[in-house]
């Protein structure tokens, strides 16, 4: 059980893990350390199989940077057949899957993605790839923990930052849903990973698909129009972060993550809009939904991150404003697919408006 919990800790936020454990009747303690100790001392063998199934499901859906590519019906059939026919090689990664390898067992960092699983379920079919990267995070160093007299340093520096390097095993999925002519490339986006790095990982998986010579993925669906569509639909989720520009040339960033509160209806936000007299132009938005399933309350989030420059395509007529969505806080298929369905709902509505 300890090995399983350590792999979970590497891959999922504690609030997500807590919901996942409770869904299996495993009551967590306070935080990872106490929970790991609790079940190391009293292992629950009957829960190992169901827990591994939940972890595999989370690998497909948890903390993902996702791009969606439209394809033709015949391409859809060909790609599903191609994925079905893939042979999963035997190696350390596949033997460990759905768990990650401990960092001390990983020999090569930065190698091309390796296939570790082919997954089929009621939603679609997908190829799961893994690759290992090195992430660098910056942490403030508390001098009082290191030296007896920190004043010598405090007189010279406002703060001292340390760099922490960690080895991270990612899972990326090329997913073909049954009910849509599309391919979703879902790549892990753990804490500390930059958007540029996430785009680079996406490109590796797209290249793998294009190398199959049965599909040629170019530009993903532009998600920029979803910013205004979701913001204006006050019945759809709760907006918890919002970045926008105004006609007075100012740029605003607002956050409000208290449970049940929506920035769209927050008094200060409404007063500011009323004072402007003109619409705002969102460029960054995080929206949270509450999804109830099997007596479990799930709270997935969708993040759409552009820039204050807006959807400028001057001199770049094919440019995509927002090419990928951050989908996080998902426990499994139910909440991830709910977020995807809300995205497609608004995209289809926008198409209909253009058509009319």
- SSE arrangement, N to C: HHHHEHHEEHEEHHEEHEEEEEH
Structural class comes to alpha+beta
Query: Which percent range fits the helix content?
Result: 25-40%
Radius of gyration, Cα only, in angstroms?
22 Å
Question: Average pLDDT value?
Answer: 90
How many strand elements? 12
Largest sheet: 10 strands, antiparallel
Gap between N and C termini? 57 Å
Shape: globular
SS field, number of helical segments: 11
Low-confidence stretches: none
Count of domains: 2
In what range is the share of β-strand residues?
Answer: 25-35%
**Main sheet strand line-up:** 2-3-4-5-1-12-11-8-6-7
Plain-language structure description:
The protein is α+β, with helices and mostly antiparallel strands and 356 residues long. It has 2 domains: 63-218, no CATH class; 224-355, no CATH class. It is 35% helix and 26% strand. It has 11 helices and 12 strands. It has helices at 2-11, 14-23, 31-41, 48-61, 73-84, 92-96, 151-154, 195-210, 224-232, 267-276, 333-355; strands at residues 64-70, 114-120, 124-140, 161-177, 182-188, 238-245, 251-255, 281-288, 291-293, 296-298, 301-305, 325-328. It has a 10-stranded antiparallel β-sheet, with helices on both faces. A two-stranded antiparallel ribbon has the order 9-10. Strand 2 and strand 3 form a beta hairpin. Helix 9 (224-232) crosses helix 11 (333-355).
